[in-house]
Structures are given as structure tokens and as C-alpha cells.
Amino acid sequence: MKFTAAQIAEILEGTVVGNPEAEVSELAKIEEGSEGSLTFLSNPKYTSYIYKTNASITIVNSNFEIEQPITTTLIKVKDAYKAFSTLLEYYNQIKLNKSGIEQPSFVAESVKYGEELYLGAFSYIGENVIIGDNVKIYPNVYIGDNVIIGNNVTLFAGVKIYSETLIGNNCVIHGGAIIGADGFGFSPGEGGVYSKVPQIGNVVIEDNVDVGAATTIDRATLGSTILRKGVKLDNQIQIAHNVEIGQNTAIAAQTGIAGSTKIGENCLIGGQVGISGHLTIGNRVKIQAQSGVGRNIKDDEMLQGSPALAYSNYNKSYIHFKNLSQTVDKLNQLEKKLNNNG
């Protein structure tokens, strides 16, 4: 699909400097731009490339001034980076704009769905499912009984949504994610034999939540495992039963959160973090990658290490960790001197 500079400028509310009929059909980095591609310049460090790029169109900030001859057509906007992100989203919407029900697929007679549904081949939708408008369900998706899905939701290929799950509006769940599998609930008995504790709760995902590929979110034992509005989960994250994650919290890949832990709002959690069960994590908490958290955390704390320490204390201590062998050598030498003098 091709777009002209004039069309792009209209979408971005920008101004064309150059040829308004210049056409593009692909996106590129400014240093790799070729004829027919669209790029952008927002970081001054890359300014030199605008005079070398072969990209047909370049989005720039409105205060950009041309100092040398250029061949690329400019579109001036208030914020080039934000405008390019808007354009990427617009492009993605067009690319993913599918509709209709492909065959073979199974849709139970009791299912209710809204307008502009796309259902990919080999998908399954169980009894009493309710699906909103403009929902995209890619091939090989499983949706169990009594699931409710809001408007403008995308479920990419291979997603599994177990029964009773509730998903809000404007959510994206990437391929291979499993929502609503049983929580890890087993009761030890005689002879070391474990008995399964039935997991009869559900998962609730509120509006504007993104779930990364191969992430797993377990259903509650009783009640709900809850992701509040605006939560962003990376790939390969494990959310255990009865966990609650506050709104606008973002969690990086390979993090594991044990059962019944409550995480506050606007937290940032790095990759490969481990969080024990039945804890309370406050609001605006920052946890650095590979930290292990085994205690309750107050609002606005920053943590690093395993077990995690206060961020500033960890950095001070780390200096000593690095020099530990030299420090031990010095202590041994001092001990020898004291013994000799004695």
C-alpha cells in the first residue's frame, strides 16, 4: 500500500516541505532509507543522515532548519518521534484489518459477537461467550465457555483463554499466551502425596492491557486474578493465582509472581524478577532486573539484588562485593602483622 506525503501530512497534522506527491510503501531507519521508504529524525545525533538518506519522505520536528541540500521530502510536525509512533500504529491497524469468519472454525450457537469480527481458521469459541465490536481472533485460538471479551481486542495466533475469563476493551494478547489455567494449588498429604486444590476462580483483565507472547496468567483459587487498567506485560511472564497488579504497572520478561501477591500502581519491574507469594508491593515501586523480593515493599521504593535491598544500599554494598578478595587479603596481612608484633 502506498501513501503520498500529502496523505501522511494530513494524518499527522503536519506541513510538507518538498514534493507533496512523493510516495512511500515501506518504513526504514534514517541511515538505511531507500527510495520509496518513510523515515523520521528526532534525535539530533542523527541529523547528518538527513542529508545522505535516500528515503523519499522524512518526518522532522517543526523547528528543524535545512542547512545543506537534501533530496528527501520533509513533513514537519510538533514531535517527530510521537508522530512516527502514531503512523506506525495507523499502519499496523491497516495491516491487521481483517474481518469475517474463516473455515474451518467452531463457534457455539450460544455465542454473541459484535460488528467487524475476524475469526481465524482452526479457532474454537465455546458456549455462552460474549465478544464485542472490532475483535480480531487469529488462527488456532481457543476461547472457553462463559468468556467475555470487550471491544477492540486482538488475540494473536495460538492464544488460549480458559473459561470464565473477563477481558476489557482495547486489549492485546500475543501468541501463545495462556489466560486462566489452574493455579499451582496442591495440598501435601500422608506419604508425600499431593492432592489438588480445585481452582474455581477466574482471571479479570481490565481495559488497555497488553500481554506478551507465551505469558501465563493463572485463574484464582477463589475470587479473581486481576490485571488493572493499563498493565503492560512482556513475554514469558508467570502470574500466579489470586495475584493483583495495579493499573499502569509494566513488567519485563521472565518475571515470576507467586500466588496472592498484590502489586500497586505505576510500578516498573525488570526482567527475571522473582516475587514471593502473599506480599504487598506499594505504588510506584521500581525493581531492577534479576532481583528477588521476599518482603512487603512500601510506596516509591527502588530495589536491586537477591534478596532485594534498597537500591542505594545495594549500589554502596556492591563496591565492597567487587573488592571483597582484596579486602580479605588486607585483613589477613594485618592479622599476620599483629601476631608477629605480639
TrEMBL record:
Keyword Cell cycle: no
Residue ranges annotated for the UDP-3-O-[3-hydroxymyristoyl] glucosamine N-acyltransferase non-repeat region domain, each copy included: 22-89
Active site annotation, chain numbering: H241 (proton acceptor)
EC class name: transferase
Keyword Lipid biosynthesis tagged: yes
Keywords carried by this UniProt record: Acyltransferase, Lipid A biosynthesis, Lipid biosynthesis, Lipid metabolism, Repeat, Transferase
Database matches in PROSITE patterns: HEXAPEP_TRANSFERASES (PS00101)
Record field: catalytic activity: a UDP-3-O-[(3R)-3-hydroxyacyl]-alpha-D-glucosamine + a (3R)-hydroxyacyl-[ACP] = a UDP-2-N,3-O-bis[(3R)-3-hydroxyacyl]-alpha-D-glucosamine + holo-[ACP] + H(+)
Molecular function terms, GO-annotated: UDP-3-O-[(3R)-3-hydroxyacyl]-glucosamine N-acyltransferase activity
InterPro entries for this protein: Hexapep, Hexapep_transf_CS, LpxD, Trimer_LpxA-like_sf, UDP_GlcNAc_AcTrfase_non-rep
Domain of life: Bacteria
EC number: 2.3.1.191
Pathway involvement of the protein, from the record: Bacterial outer membrane biogenesis; LPS lipid A biosynthesis
One Pfam family named in its UniProt record: Hexapep
Function: Catalyzes the N-acylation of UDP-3-O-acylglucosamine using 3-hydroxyacyl-ACP as the acyl donor. Is involved in the biosynthesis of lipid A, a phosphorylated glycolipid that anchors the lipopolysaccharide to the outer membrane of the cell.
Sequence similarity: Belongs to the transferase hexapeptide repeat family. LpxD subfamily.
Record's subunit section: Homotrimer.
Name the record gives this protein: UDP-3-O-acylglucosamine N-acyltransferase
Organism: Autumnicola edwardsiae
Gene of this entry: lpxD
